[in-house]
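Here we describe the complex-level prediction in full. Unlike the single-chain runs in Section 2.1, the two entities below were treated as one system.
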Amino acid sequence: MSLRQACGAPLFGAALCLACLYAVPEARADLAAITSQNADALTLVDTESLEIVASLPLPGKPAAVATEAGRDLILAVATDPAALHVFDLSGTARAVWPLPDGAFGVAIRPESGTALVSVITGFVAEIDPESGRELSRWQTGAMPSGLAAEPGLIVVANRDADSVTLISAGETREVATGHHPFGVTLYEGRAFVTDVLSDQVSVIDLAGARVIARIPTGERPYAVAFAAGKGFVSNQYEASLTVFDADSLEVLTSIATDDYPEGVAATADESRILVANWFSDTVQVIDSQSLEVIARLEMPAGPRAFGRFIAAIP
Amino acid sequence: MKKLMIAISACLALLAGMAQAHGPSRLKSEQSVLLNASPEEVWAVIGSFSDMTWLPSVTSITATGAEKGATRARVLDSGVSINEELLKIDPAKFAISTRLTEDNLDYIKATNYALHITLKDEGGKARVELKSAFYRAFPQNDPPADLNDDASTAAVEALGQQMIEALVARFGAAG
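The structure predicted for the assembly as a whole is:
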């Protein structure tokens, strides 16, 4: 398949979308978009029924993914060769755009619906998912990995610089973190950054651009999600989620998972946490109140789902 | 001085290249064998960070401790020396995980190699599960054939097979 190939003219795309709307039951739950890096696949899961809605080919060893229901958008970054894959929520492939070598993380810029892609040679690129055009580029620290955005702000973890870069209004600021920061999650004015080699989460006050707390985790923390007033951190080597109180930042407990958990995200109603387990080829579903694992879904090999992989369907 | 600077630049470039390919695509392999012994009996043999006499190719081992985070130096009969860290040890779950702290292609043609050994009870017999996570030996783009994904996966599985054969020789295979 040509990387420049986009699937269908806008009118055709619109017709497809309409068809999807009619095909989908009304009381649909959220949609989880799980990238499987070793199997080159994207799996769409209904987070309520836990049925697999679509199993799609996604070549190029994809790891990072981002979704936004309001824009009917799923973005995944393939790493080899580097490409931005654009899908709608029905799983229809809309476009594939080439990216600079070393493209890795992805987030959706809320103001514009554009793709923010971290490129490990040291910058974040903003890509228009409609045209594939690069709109902006910001320098970061070394090895930018996970990133997250809210209106007016982009936060990216610089894995080999032990820092995060805060980008707002064209101005960039760097804040020191622990060792090997990888995942970034924004929550209530704070950035929660997993320091993989420090076994902790650095909590950064975004207004003051400074670290205000460090939360001890299990071994090799990778990603953070929030639900029901709690934070959930995936610990790869420990095969667990560290659960902490989102206000006090005190660690509450730990939940055993399958092996090498990575991507973690919450449903819109915050009742469930989904975690993708890279080694075990599973997604586990956790009740955010009882903290029990309530389901385990088999996935194509190597699920990572690194990013905001659940689309909150209104 | 200039030569030194050039050497440093070359090293940095090499490091950058190595780090570069490490972001995206980790590999894994899973192997298992059912032994003719209970999990307790097998754990008594393999559940130690400072003793690997069950693996014939190990000639000496020096460990700094028995807790998570401890390191050990292991010398093999081939003369190769490797350094490892204890990531996890859980006697209740019969689980031990280690990783190479320095890549050593003479030991295994893979990088960032971690090994997780778990024993499961299967009708009173020990099911040994070997789970390996690693990157290919040549981290940059366009790897040579003997250092690519397939070659590194084969090397990891050959090492796992050595362990399985050592355990079968000691306990016998069940079923």
